[in-house]
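Retro notes, item 3 of 5
We never archived the inputs for the zinc ion complex last cycle. Fixing that now. Sequence and ligand:
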Amino acid sequence: MPVPILMYHNIDRAPKGVKLRGLYVSPERFRRQMALLHRLGYQGLSMSAALPYIRGEAKGKVVAITFDDGYRDNLENALPVLQHYGFTATCYMVSAALGADNPWDAEALGVHKPLMSETELRQWQAAGMEVGAHSRHHPRLPDLTEADLLNEMTGSRQDLEKLLAVPVTQFCYPYGAAGQREREAAK
Ligand SMILES: [Zn+2]
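Structure as it came back at the time:
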């Protein structure tokens, strides 16, 4: 049975008039979704923990839970719920934007959303959650030169490994934009 991967961004109430409402799940709705998964017997897992199931090496009722970009609301609103149910999750961080506010889409979306700072990211990690890389600056990777691509991909991993002192083995393509070259680079 394929392993569902739940891909979240913000766990917060969407501000009025916000574009891309679909990036928001309210804290109440998120709590209900996790409660439902738990009731149905699912275990929520980080990507690393879910990989053996995705590869067919392990069997069980699991879903992978991921958060893109690393918003502070993930720490404030999602983490307590995940902990309540004994779930883990992966948060993909933009390593040069820790403590900033989504510079890559704040203009387009008309709303500034705070990203986790270094200290907050350490809290996320200390709670048993996984941190994955999501580039340094959130560019569209296929538009980059070879040198910039490596800087964004390898660089973000190095930044996070230095900060957290653990191997960072997961990568998420900004905007989901990836061709053959980006997939090879990720490997
Ligand atoms: Zn993103």
